[in-house]
Amino acid sequence: MIYQRILAILIMCIPGVIAIYGWTLMRDVLFDSASLGTFLVFRFSIGLILFLLGIAIIGGFIFRHDKKRNKIQPKLLRKKEEK
User: Fold this and answer.
1) Which pTM does this prediction carry?
2) How many CB atoms lie within 10 A of CB 47?
3) Which Pfam families did the record assign (predicted)?
């Protein structure tokens, strides 16, 4: 049982690391553009995609976890799920 929990925590760390790496890419592009004067759009967009992907995976996991335990407000559920 303890190994399953450790494995679940490690699996949930992967999207967090992806989001942190995306944030770091965006930050580096902004700081480099301030010092060099060139803005790398492709690198910034890759960072933004990685950041949003990581946050979406974590948010979806938390939403699904709370939905299974009936801790979601009724206005966030679809009509057929309320019944």
Assistant:
1) 0.81
2) 21
3) DUF2627 (PF11118)
